[in-house]
């Protein structure tokens, strides 16, 4: 893993050595793509456009957020900002990296929550826009434009997370793949006809489930907060 981590650090160095104007762009992307924006921005907008799509965004966002936390407990995953010091790489090789206010994230890093949760929750919105475009245009480029925008957004989010040293490239890739798979798999299983009480109960069940799982892992001698 050290070789993989070192390659990731070099990739981050290359990103940070880009034009100065890119710094503001990457930081803006990583801030706007924060998972909480799924619930505060994307869900209300999607719900306003179409109730079923909005509920799907909320449901998939909820499940993917929970699953991301659970996966991180088991996959762990170093954070680049901390790893360069803990591994001793800075004492062996020349490492030229810059720190940002959002660099010092703690906790396990695999898979990337930004990529996974955003990718999963936006999937139903993208498919709905694709269906809408297909009804109004015969152009293949127009039909594929929503997924093209989705792919570009996810790429930008992933690169921004590497740029600010929050994730290694392989953690970004795992987040992208997990997000797309979750979005595709859960879209057709959204309980769109359920009452608000169902979602409250589901959220409570996920919360209690995560607390119980956390206790079991700690009891097994695994330090989740390493």
UniProtKB/TrEMBL annotation:
It comes from Chionis minor. Pathway: Carbohydrate biosynthesis; gluconeogenesis. It is found in: Endoplasmic reticulum membrane. This is Glucose-6-phosphatase 3. PANTHER family: GLUCOSE-6-PHOSPHATASE, GLUCOSE-6-PHOSPHATASE 3. Residues 53-187 form the Phosphatidic acid phosphatase type 2/haloperoxidase domain. Its EC number is 3.1.3.9. One of its GO terms (biological process) is glucose 6-phosphate metabolic process. The keyword Endoplasmic reticulum applies. Belongs to the glucose-6-phosphatase family. Keywords: Endoplasmic reticulum, Gluconeogenesis, Hydrolase, Membrane, Transmembrane, Transmembrane helix. It holds the Pfam family PAP2. It is a multi-pass membrane protein. One of its GO terms (molecular function) is glucose-6-phosphatase activity. GO terms for cellular component: endoplasmic reticulum membrane. The gene is G6pc3. InterPro entries: PAP2/HPO (IPR000326), PAP2/HPO_sf (IPR036938). The chain crosses the membrane at residues 56-76, 116-133, 140-162, 198-222. The lineage of its organism: Eukaryota, Metazoa, Chordata, Craniata, Vertebrata.
């Amino acid at each position: 893993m050290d070789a993989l981590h070192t390659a990731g650090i070099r990739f981050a160095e290359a990103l940070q050595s880009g034009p100065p104007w890119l710094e503001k762009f990457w930081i803006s992307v990583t801030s706007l793509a924060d998972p909480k924006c799924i619930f505060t921005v994307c869900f209300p907008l999607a719900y306003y456009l179409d109730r079923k799509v909005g509920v799907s965004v909320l449901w998939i966002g909820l499940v993917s957020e929970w699953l991301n936390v659970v996966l991180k407990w088991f996959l762990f995953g170093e954070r680049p900002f901390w790893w360069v010091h803990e591994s001793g790489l800075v004492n062996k090789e020349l490492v030229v990296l810059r720190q940002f206010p959002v660099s010092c994230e703690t906790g396990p890093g695999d898979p990337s929550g930004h990529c996974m949760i955003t990718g999963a929750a936006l999937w139903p919105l993208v498919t709905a826009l694709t269906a809408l475009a297909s009804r109004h245009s015969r152009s293949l480029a127009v039909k594929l434009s929503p997924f093209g925008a989705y792919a570009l957004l996810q790429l930008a989010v992933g690169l921004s997370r590497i740029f600010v040293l929050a994730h290694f490239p392989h953690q970004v890739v795992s987040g992208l793949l997990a997000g797309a798979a979750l979005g595709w798999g859960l879209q057709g299983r959204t309980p769109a006809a359920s009452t608000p009480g169902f979602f409250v109960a589901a959220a409570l069940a996920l919360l209690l489930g995560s607390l119980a799982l956390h206790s079991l892992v700690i009891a097994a001698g695994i330090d989740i907060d390493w």
